[in-house]
Amino acid sequence: LRELLQSKDRLAYPALKLGFGLDDTYLEALKTELIDAEHVAADENGKVLVWTGGTPVASSQVSVVSSPPPVSYTPAHLAERIRAEQAALEARGATDGERKTITALFADLKGSTALIEGLDPEEARAIIDPALQLMMDAVHQYDGYVAQALGDGIFALFGAPLAHEDHPQRALYAALRMQEAMRRYADTLRAKGYPPLLMRVGINTGEVVLRSIRKDDLHADYVPVGHSTNLAARMEQLANPGTIVVSAYTHRLTDGYFAFKDLGPTQIKGVEDALNIYEVLSVGPLRTRLQVSARRGLTRFVGRQSEMEQLQRALEHAKAGHGQIVGTMGEPGLGK
Questions:
Q1: How many CB atoms are closer than 10 A to CB 140?
Q2: Which residue stretches of 204-247 are H helix?
Q3: Which residues pair with 223 in a beta bridge?
Q4: Cβ–Cβ < 8 Å for 41, 51
Q5: By three-state DSSP, how is residue 210 classified?
Q6: For 250-275, what is each residue's pLDDT tens digit?
Q7: Which of 137, 295, 307, 308 is spaced 20 to 30 Å from 2 by Cα?
Q8: What is the DSSP string of 51-105?
């Protein structure tokens, strides 16, 4: 996209979306990166992206990393599970879309432009592609879905199309894993005389509408609701190279599982009120939901005296050497 914009100076947004297969969310993220972060482009009446960053660069100096369809970078075992989830979605008659709460992750490389400057395109690709693979491997390690891989970054989802209740934790584990892998990869580049690559990651949890997934190439259309994925892209743009930044929504769901640094209230483009953001430092001391709940303060049972007495009797029998099995039954929402 950068090379095309440099060579033509002006590109209409519909042409960009069609030519590169971009959805509205990723187009907004690219616009923010080029206009606000790098200051190499400008918006003209919301219709045209205009190059302002200087003279065009010869094609021999730029590496264009194409975006293969998701099926080409989704492991076979995950692809099969995704197709099974899609079949279940169709069986429920939800082919027009299903609202889900997911965690979105954006990651990209900082310094890649300087790194590949003057390199042969094949040599540049040989440097960038392994970094992208490290990102995708970390996502797949925790059952995430790489929705897009463009240029020097990825857009991934956790919690859809493969459902997991702990999708915010999975996204943060994946982010920490890819940062660790990127540090090792940067060391190998440094040993070969290249400047190191640094990665920034942004994460947000919120609602989206999951559209139908084509079974041939696993392409999916994720329509953001409440700017959920846009906010994840904003978190990435606010992150310093080598760091992971999450929104207050993701922090609230993962506090205790991970250690954070509070970056304070921050004004974010497209959000009326300032939003607290947090930098992920490391894995935290707690591992289970019960441990996290205990730290926040457990709520006493009310109106469950007979049930508690039955549990206590079962415990005493078990201590006396008589094995016990206790089952809890009830309608959804009763607090089992």
A1: 18
A2: 228-238
A3: 209
A4: yes
A5: strand
A6: 999 999 899 999 999 998 877 778 88
A7: 137
A8: E-S-SPPPGGG--------GGGGS-HHHHHHHHHHHHHHHHTT-TT-EEEEEEEE
